[in-house]
Design a protein that fits this description.
This protein has one domain. By secondary structure, it is mostly helical. The radius of gyration is 22 Å and the shape is globular. Helix 2 packs across helix 6. Strands 1-4 form a two-stranded antiparallel sheet. Strands 2-3 form a two-stranded antiparallel ribbon. The longest helix is centred in the C-terminal third of the chain and has 45 residues.
Length: 253
C-alpha cells in the first residue's frame, strides 16, 4: 500500500536562488507544490469570477454559482457584524474563496495546500492581525476592553483578564488547526481506503468483495470530503466575522 502521507510532502517545482533578508536570514524563493497550489487557487478565483461577471440577459450556471457564493458570504457578514459587515465583505469573501478553491482543487490534484499547517496558520494569523488593526483603528486604547468584559465583579478580573488574553492569542492557532486537521485527516483516510481497493483487488474472489466494499467507502468519503471542503471554508469565514464583530461592537461587551 502506498504511503498515505506521501501526498503531503513539499517538493520543489521551480528552483530559484536563495536570498538573504536582514532580520529574517536566508529565504529560499523556489516555487514548491504548495506555492503552486496557492497560486493556482488564486488564478482560478480570478478566472472564475471574470467569467461569472460577464453581463448576460439570462444568467448562466457559472454566474449563478458565483452570485450564490457571494450572496452567501454577504448575508453571513451582515447577519454577524451588522451594517458594518459591508466594509469587511471584500476581506471575508476573499478568505472564503481562497480557502474554498484550495480545498476543492485538492480533491482533483495530488497536493492540497490547506493540508499544510504553515498555510492555514498563516491565514489564521492574518485574520487576527486584521482584527487587532481594526480594533485599534475603531476603538483606540479602548481595544483592551475586549479582555475585560463589563458586568463582572472586579476581583474576578484578576482571573478573567489573563484567560481572555490567552483565548485571544490562541484564536489563530485554533483557526489554522481546525482547517489543517480536517483537510489532512480526510485525505489520509481517502488514500488508505483507495489503497485497500488496489491491495484487495489482487487476492481473488474474496479480495474482490473487499475491494468493492472499499471502493464504495471511497465514493462515500469523496462525497463527504467535498462537503467538508465547503464547510471548512464557510466556518473559516464565520469565525472571521465573529472575531471582527467582537472589535467592531466592542461597546456591547
Amino acid at each position: 500500500m502506498a504511503d498515505p502521507m506521501h501526498q503531503f510532502q513539499i517538493q520543489k517545482i521551480v528552483e530559484l536562488p536563495t536570498v538573504t533578508v536582514p532580520g529574517l536570514g536566508a529565504i529560499d524563493l523556489s516555487i514548491t507544490n504548495s506555492v503552486f497550489a496557492m497560486l493556482l487557487a488564486a488564478t482560478l478565483i480570478v478566472v472564475f469570477y471574470a467569467a461569472a461577471a460577464r453581463k448576460a440577459v439570462v444568467p448562466g450556471r457559472l454566474q449563478t454559482v458565483g452570485e450564490m457564493l457571494y450572496g452567501l458570504v454577504d448575508g453571513l457578514a451582515e447577519s454577524i457584524i451588522g451594517h458594518d459587515g459591508k466594509k469587511f465583505l471584500p476581506f471575508v469573501f476573499t478568505l472564503f474563496a481562497f480557502v474554498l478553491f484550495m480545498n476543492l482543487q485538492g480533491m482533483f490534484l495530488v497536493f492540497t495546500a490547506t493540508s499544510q499547517l504553515a498555510v492555514t496558520l498563516t491565514l489564521g494569523i492574518m485574520v487576527i492581525l486584521t482584527v487587532v488593526g481594526v480594533g485599534f483603528a475603531k476603538n483606540g486604547i479602548k481595544f483592551f476592553k475586549l479582555f475585560a468584559p463589563s458586568g463582572v465583579p472586579w476581583p474576578l478580573y484578576f482571573l478573567l483578564v489573563p484567560i481572555e488574553i490567552l483565548s485571544f492569542l490562541i484564536r489563530p492557532i485554533t483557526l489554522g488547526l481546525r482547517l489543517f486537521g480536517n483537510m489532512l485527516g480526510g485525505h489520509v483516510v481517502l488514500k488508505i481506503f483507495a489503497g485497500f481497493v488496489v491491495a484487495l483487488g489482487g487476492l481473488g474472489v474474496l479480495g474482490w468483495a473487499g475491494a468493492a466494499l472499499a471502493l464504495s467507502s471511497v465514493i462515500a468519503l469523496t462525497a463527504l470530503e467535498f462537503m467538508v471542503a465547503f464547510l471548512q471554508a464557510f466556518v473559516f469565514a464565520v469565525l472571521t466575522c465573529v472575531y471582527l464583530n467582537d472589535v467592531v461592537h466592542l461597546d456591547s461587551h
